[in-house]
TrEMBL record:
SUPFAM superfamilies: Winged helix' DNA-binding domain. Keywords: DNA-binding, Transcription, Transcription regulation. Residues 11-108 form the HTH hxlR-type domain. It comes from the Bacteria. GO terms for molecular function: DNA binding. It comes from Kosakonia quasisacchari. InterPro entries: HTH_HxlR (IPR002577), WH-like_DNA-bd_sf (IPR036388), WH_DNA-bd_sf (IPR036390). This is Transcriptional regulator.
Length: 184
Protein backbone atom coordinates (compact mmCIF):
# COMPACT_ATOMS: atom_id res chain seq x y z
CA UNK A 1 0.00 0.00 0.00
CA UNK A 2 1.35 3.40 -0.96
CA UNK A 3 2.90 5.38 1.88
CA UNK A 4 2.65 9.08 0.98
CA UNK A 5 5.02 10.38 3.70
CA UNK A 6 7.73 8.03 2.42
CA UNK A 7 6.94 8.86 -1.22
CA UNK A 8 7.70 12.51 -0.46
CA UNK A 9 10.72 12.02 1.80
CA UNK A 10 14.08 13.41 0.66
CA UNK A 11 15.71 9.94 0.64
CA UNK A 12 15.44 7.89 -2.60
CA UNK A 13 15.29 4.66 -0.59
CA UNK A 14 12.30 5.96 1.38
CA UNK A 15 10.66 7.24 -1.83
CA UNK A 16 11.07 3.82 -3.45
CA UNK A 17 9.72 1.95 -0.43
CA UNK A 18 6.79 4.36 -0.27
CA UNK A 19 5.73 3.06 -3.66
CA UNK A 20 6.62 -0.62 -3.53
CA UNK A 21 7.63 -1.42 0.03
CA UNK A 22 4.44 -3.32 0.73
CA UNK A 23 5.07 -7.07 0.77
CA UNK A 24 2.12 -7.82 -1.53
CA UNK A 25 3.45 -5.39 -4.13
CA UNK A 26 6.85 -7.08 -4.01
CA UNK A 27 5.22 -10.49 -4.48
CA UNK A 28 3.20 -9.19 -7.44
CA UNK A 29 6.39 -7.82 -9.01
CA UNK A 30 8.16 -11.15 -8.33
CA UNK A 31 5.36 -12.91 -10.18
CA UNK A 32 5.36 -10.38 -13.03
CA UNK A 33 9.08 -11.06 -13.55
CA UNK A 34 8.29 -14.78 -13.64
CA UNK A 35 5.78 -14.16 -16.46
CA UNK A 36 2.41 -13.93 -14.75
CA UNK A 37 0.21 -11.25 -16.33
CA UNK A 38 -3.40 -11.99 -15.40
CA UNK A 39 -5.34 -11.24 -12.24
CA UNK A 40 -6.20 -14.88 -11.54
CA UNK A 41 -2.56 -15.93 -12.02
CA UNK A 42 -1.35 -13.34 -9.51
CA UNK A 43 -4.16 -14.23 -7.09
CA UNK A 44 -3.47 -17.97 -7.17
CA UNK A 45 0.33 -17.64 -7.12
CA UNK A 46 0.40 -15.24 -4.18
CA UNK A 47 -2.70 -16.60 -2.42
CA UNK A 48 -3.75 -13.01 -1.86
CA UNK A 49 -7.31 -11.79 -1.28
CA UNK A 50 -8.84 -10.33 -4.47
CA UNK A 51 -9.55 -6.92 -2.87
CA UNK A 52 -5.91 -6.57 -1.76
CA UNK A 53 -4.67 -7.69 -5.16
CA UNK A 54 -6.94 -5.20 -6.96
CA UNK A 55 -5.63 -2.34 -4.83
CA UNK A 56 -1.97 -3.30 -5.24
CA UNK A 57 -2.28 -3.76 -9.01
CA UNK A 58 -3.94 -0.35 -9.31
CA UNK A 59 -1.17 1.27 -7.26
CA UNK A 60 1.55 -0.43 -9.30
CA UNK A 61 -0.15 0.82 -12.48
CA UNK A 62 -0.59 4.32 -11.01
CA UNK A 63 3.10 4.41 -10.03
CA UNK A 64 4.16 3.29 -13.51
CA UNK A 65 5.66 -0.12 -12.69
CA UNK A 66 2.92 -2.06 -14.49
CA UNK A 67 0.63 -1.18 -17.37
CA UNK A 68 -2.90 -2.47 -17.82
CA UNK A 69 -3.41 -4.01 -21.28
CA UNK A 70 -6.78 -5.17 -22.62
CA UNK A 71 -6.86 -8.71 -23.99
CA UNK A 72 -10.66 -9.11 -24.27
CA UNK A 73 -13.47 -6.64 -24.81
CA UNK A 74 -16.37 -9.03 -24.22
CA UNK A 75 -16.17 -9.36 -21.30
CA UNK A 76 -13.55 -6.70 -20.52
CA UNK A 77 -10.36 -8.41 -19.37
CA UNK A 78 -6.87 -7.06 -18.73
CA UNK A 79 -3.33 -8.23 -18.34
CA UNK A 80 -0.64 -6.44 -16.35
CA UNK A 81 2.70 -5.98 -18.08
CA UNK A 82 5.91 -4.64 -16.63
CA UNK A 83 6.88 -1.19 -17.89
CA UNK A 84 10.48 -0.05 -18.34
CA UNK A 85 10.30 1.36 -14.80
CA UNK A 86 9.05 -2.00 -13.54
CA UNK A 87 11.69 -3.98 -15.44
CA UNK A 88 14.39 -1.80 -13.88
CA UNK A 89 13.26 -3.14 -10.49
CA UNK A 90 14.53 -6.64 -11.37
CA UNK A 91 17.93 -6.30 -9.65
CA UNK A 92 16.13 -5.55 -6.37
CA UNK A 93 14.05 -8.74 -6.67
CA UNK A 94 17.17 -10.76 -7.55
CA UNK A 95 19.05 -9.32 -4.56
CA UNK A 96 16.12 -10.17 -2.26
CA UNK A 97 16.06 -13.74 -3.59
CA UNK A 98 19.81 -14.12 -2.99
CA UNK A 99 19.54 -12.65 0.52
CA UNK A 100 16.48 -14.77 1.37
CA UNK A 101 18.16 -17.97 0.20
CA UNK A 102 21.27 -17.17 2.22
CA UNK A 103 19.59 -16.25 5.51
CA UNK A 104 16.05 -17.65 5.56
CA UNK A 105 16.24 -20.96 3.68
CA UNK A 106 18.18 -23.34 5.94
CA UNK A 107 16.91 -26.24 3.84
CA UNK A 108 18.60 -24.79 0.74
CA UNK A 109 17.80 -22.47 -2.14
CA UNK A 110 14.12 -22.32 -2.98
CA UNK A 111 14.66 -20.40 -6.21
CA UNK A 112 17.88 -19.49 -7.93
CA UNK A 113 19.15 -17.39 -10.77
CA UNK A 114 20.62 -19.51 -13.55
CA UNK A 115 22.16 -18.88 -16.93
CA UNK A 116 19.37 -19.81 -19.36
CA UNK A 117 21.48 -21.78 -21.83
CA UNK A 118 23.49 -23.89 -19.38
CA UNK A 119 21.30 -23.77 -16.25
CA UNK A 120 24.46 -22.86 -14.31
CA UNK A 121 23.53 -21.22 -10.99
CA UNK A 122 24.61 -17.57 -10.77
CA UNK A 123 25.26 -15.56 -7.61
CA UNK A 124 23.94 -12.00 -7.68
CA UNK A 125 26.40 -9.29 -6.67
CA UNK A 126 26.62 -5.54 -7.13
CA UNK A 127 29.56 -4.27 -9.14
CA UNK A 128 30.97 -0.88 -10.01
CA UNK A 129 30.09 -0.52 -13.70
CA UNK A 130 33.18 1.61 -14.38
CA UNK A 131 35.74 -0.74 -12.78
CA UNK A 132 33.97 -4.11 -12.58
CA UNK A 133 34.89 -4.31 -8.89
CA UNK A 134 32.49 -5.83 -6.36
CA UNK A 135 30.79 -3.18 -4.27
CA UNK A 136 31.75 -3.71 -0.64
CA UNK A 137 31.12 -1.48 2.40
CA UNK A 138 34.86 -1.22 2.96
CA UNK A 139 35.43 0.47 -0.41
CA UNK A 140 32.08 2.11 -1.31
CA UNK A 141 29.64 4.30 0.64
CA UNK A 142 26.48 6.29 0.09
CA UNK A 143 27.02 10.05 0.18
CA UNK A 144 24.75 13.03 -0.40
CA UNK A 145 24.12 13.58 -4.09
CA UNK A 146 24.11 16.88 -5.99
CA UNK A 147 20.42 17.50 -5.17
CA UNK A 148 20.57 16.26 -1.57
CA UNK A 149 18.25 17.97 0.89
CA UNK A 150 19.77 19.57 4.02
CA UNK A 151 18.55 16.69 6.19
CA UNK A 152 20.49 14.22 4.00
CA UNK A 153 23.66 16.31 4.44
CA UNK A 154 23.04 16.53 8.19
CA UNK A 155 22.60 12.74 8.47
CA UNK A 156 25.79 12.11 6.50
CA UNK A 157 27.82 14.64 8.51
CA UNK A 158 26.53 13.19 11.79
CA UNK A 159 27.52 9.66 10.75
CA UNK A 160 30.96 10.81 9.56
CA UNK A 161 31.61 12.34 12.99
CA UNK A 162 30.26 9.25 14.75
CA UNK A 163 32.50 6.92 12.70
CA UNK A 164 35.44 9.20 13.55
CA UNK A 165 34.79 8.57 17.24
CA UNK A 166 32.70 11.58 18.26
CA UNK A 167 30.18 10.04 20.66
CA UNK A 168 29.28 13.33 22.34
CA UNK A 169 26.77 14.44 19.73
CA UNK A 170 23.04 13.73 19.67
CA UNK A 171 21.22 12.91 16.46
CA UNK A 172 18.72 15.75 15.99
CA UNK A 173 17.87 16.06 12.31
CA UNK A 174 14.75 18.18 12.84
CA UNK A 175 16.93 21.14 13.81
CA UNK A 176 18.55 21.04 10.36
CA UNK A 177 15.54 20.42 8.14
CA UNK A 178 14.70 23.30 5.82
CA UNK A 179 11.15 24.59 5.48
CA UNK A 180 10.87 22.84 2.09
CA UNK A 181 11.79 19.50 3.67
CA UNK A 182 9.42 20.17 6.59
CA UNK A 183 6.50 20.49 4.16
CA UNK A 184 7.25 17.06 2.81
Amino acid sequence: MRNEPLCNAPCPIARSLGRIGDSWSMIILRDAFAGFTRFDEFQKSANVAPNILSRRLKELVDDGLLEKVSYSTTPPRYEYHLTALGRDFRPVILALAEWGNRYFSPEGAQIQLVERETQRPVETILIDKATGETITPEKYALMPGPAAAPVIHYRHDYLQRKHAGDNTQKFAPLHYVSRDDDAQ
